UniProtKB/TrEMBL annotation:
Protein name: PIG-L family deacetylase
């Protein structure tokens, strides 16, 4: 028995070392050798990207969830307004499918449909505060109230028959303050409402999620936005929020570092750097602070987007839409 004790401690020590190394890889801890390598790779990858020309005019940001606008383009949206342009944001869902968020806010392991609906209202209010912190007028912010984690089945399987959210238990828009309260969760209605926002805003430029994003809601939003752009002729740029478990690196607040994409090219196109100034980052930080429910659960992920630059990917000139078959991948 005495011989087995050292072996047991050796196994535990080995496991602890593996856990620390994995955490260092995922978080990019700069004070470890792995973190130093991460910093070098991020700086080199960002420096190799072309710098993007500033945007101006009427810009519409298509946001699958409350917080995507602040994380992916908090600096860009400010820059557009500082140059005399107008910024609009449309939130497709109210973020009412993130159960760990609800557990953190209710401090209960088990959450009900009513808890998730309250979370949706909370995240809508957080989005109002965040966009206000960025300087976006309240009249330029639209909420559709479709279900978080439900956009793909709605569009591919429930185009005509209402979809019931697995998280809230409802099959129609339940929130006041949305574009069309009470309307059914169908792909046809989602199409109609997003088209109505385009008609109201008349954007010259649309910022939409990348089809390479890891979240299915984002991929569906990418298809919707690219299809509308191909029909209407708006200039389209893609952004990225969910680039994989290890992205963006390093985790946490690193204002002095650039942001590099997980892959420099996507579908044959190269990502571009959009510079962000120190005052713009300061307002972006205030906007992130408005998302209190998110900061309880994923703070280091949220802060990792406050960098010297943000990233955009120009869509192909022909604006061809993403095939629907790619949405479920």
């Amino acid at each position: 028995m005495r011989l087995k004790k050292p072996r047991k401690w050796k196994r535990l020590t080995s496991l602890l070392v593996l856990v620390v190394l994995l955490a260092a890889f995922v978080n990019g801890w700069y004070w470890l050798p792995t973190g130093s390598l991460t910093l070098h790779q991020v700086k080199a990858a960002a420096a190799a990207l072309p710098e993007m020309k500033p945007l101006s005019g009427r810009v519409l940001f298509v946001s699958p969830h409350p917080d995507d606008e602040t994380l992916a383009a908090g600096g860009i949206l400010q820059d557009v307004m500082e140059r005399g342009g107008q910024v609009y944001v449309v939130f497709l869902t109210s973020g009412d499918g993130f159960e760990w968020d609800a557990r953190a806010t209710t401090r209960e392991l088990s959450v009900s449909h009513a808890d998730m609906l309250r979370l949706g209202l909370q995240r809508m209010n957080e989005a109002r505060a965040a966009t206000r912190a960025l300087g976006i007028p309240a009249s330029h912010v639209y909420f559709l109230g479709f279900p978080d984690q439900g956009l793909t089945p709605i569009y591919l399987q429930n185009y005509l028959v209402p979809y019931t959210s697995l998280h809230t238990g409802v099959n129609r828009v339940p929130y006041a303050g949305t574009l069309a309260p009470g309307k059914p969760y169908t792909g046809k209605e989602l199409d109609r409402q997003l088209s109505a926002v385009y008609d109201l805003v008349k954007p010259e430029i649309v910022l939409a999620p990348s089809a390479q994003d890891g979240h299915p809601d984002h991929r569906t939003a990418a298809y919707l936005a690219s299809r509308l752009a191909s029909q209407r002729g708006e200039k389209l740029y893609f952004y990225l929020v969910h680039g994989g478990l290890e992205w963006p690196l390093p985790k946490g607040l690193h204002e002095g570092l650039p942001l590099a994409p997980p892959r420099p090219t996507s579908q044959g196109l190269k990502w571009q750097r959009y510079p962000v100034t120190a005052p713009q980052r300061a307002r972006q930080i205030k906007a992130i602070q408005a998302y209190k429910s998110q900061l309880v659960v994923i703070p280091r992920f949220m802060w990792a987007f406050v960098r010297q630059n943000e990233l955009l990917l120009p869509a192909p000139a022909e604006g061809s839409p993403i095939p629907p078959a790619d949405l479920g991948k």
